[in-house]
Amino acid sequence: MAAGLLEHITVRMVRARCRVRGWRAEHVVVVTTLLDPKVYPAREITNLFLRRWEVETDLGHLKTTMKMDMLRTKSPDMVRRELWAHLLAYNLIRTLMWDAGSAHRVEPLRLSFKSAMAEMMALWPFTAGAARTRNLSKLYASLLQFIASHKVPLRPHRSEPRVRKRRPKNYRLMTEPRHKSEKGRNQKRA
Q: Does residue 88 form part of some domain?
């Protein structure tokens, strides 16, 4: 037994039949440690399960939109720092989206994450000049208005296949340092 791990854990199985208009009825079993059925009703757990697409989308934003699919650092300490920096930036953008939604009466989850990130990056160079002239509040209001203008369509219960959109290139993998690979290629030419 590993240190810190429990020998036994009590779980609750929530079995439900999910009916989504246009879909076949699906039987769902969710295993959870949320044991109290009064505090955590089965219907709420089932509804939360159906919202899993939003979680997939958020992970996609972290990996693809924020280019976190390949970390640049090597040491464990720097990898942790890079992860925290990405999470901090992600939460900053989500906070901007929340503020924009509240200010312009739009549900924040209906706003485009990618567009919010692009708008923030586009206005970033102007913040120093706005700070000098004390126009930061006007710049922030403009940023929120731009973010609120990028709505995504409401797509409840969306489901996508797990497939690659782009095909991999037909090149062999780099298995040795670049300088060794360059020498071998130059020798073959001579």
A: yes
